[in-house]
Amino acid sequence: MIISTICKLLLAMGVGYYLNKKRIFTEEVSQKLSYFVVNIAMPLMIVTALNDTEISDKGELLRYILAGACFYLVIPFLAKGINLLTKVPKEERSVYEAFYLFSNNMFMGYPVAASLYGSGCIFQLSMFNLGFNLLYYTYGIKLFQSGKDKEKEKFDYKKVLGPGTIAAIIAIVLFFSGLKLPQAATEVCSFLGNVSSPLSMVIIGSTIGTYSLKSIFGDDKRLYFVSIVRLVLMPAATYFILSALGFTGILRGTATVAMGMPVASLVSMGCIEHQNNEKLGSAGVVLTTIVSLFTIPVMLIFLG
Q: Which long-range contacts link 6-9 to residues 24+ away (Cβ below 8 Å)?
């Protein structure tokens, strides 16, 4: 299931690459589809993620949510420090910071965790990643707007209350109140939200088609360092920190899986939408996804 999931994502990228070479998916098409994924499809997926879950121990889950929130509060500072140590050019720092902040846990983390712990673990994983959703649609959007062509642009804080943030707040309310969306609403949201994963990878492939694959894998050696940090060091640190905090079993395992995924396709989507180092954003997603073919099986063997 693990290899099959990754192969599906890579195949979707291949389709996008082909469509770009055939000039069917142009840069303008990719930008418009990216807007749909980031602002419509993904928020709908967030809303439905917690709708059908059963709440057992609210106290432990609340502690788990707080642990996840702390992770996402600390990682930005660590990412800035890594950028300084590795001497990342100023105009690329926002994208590299996003590489360390956002892992592809929604598109890859869920099926990978389910292959180890069963489908019931999706609820716990959603809880740990509540901080991800809030961070992406607030601080993450600010990062994408601070590219080399946007440094003097004043950030619009009204965008904090965009579709993604509102969706995350609704999910939190549903969790603590025990309320559920009507079945009809759930089906509609799921129908549209489920297209976000394949469509995002098709868009990434289309963006890659604009550039030379040789340049993506050969020019910037820092991306290999990103792969080591993203796929090896971060999940290892998560495992030992949560162990020290008293978390075990599925809670510890799902968080480790979440932090051990490749760079989120949303990073590439954000770069494309805001025209901020699109090539670098797509290269980071592609390279870490390919390397994860080797690191994810090792991680699952360790957790198993």
A: 6/108, 6/289, 6/292, 6/293, 6/296, 8/198, 9/107, 9/108, 9/197, 9/201, 9/289
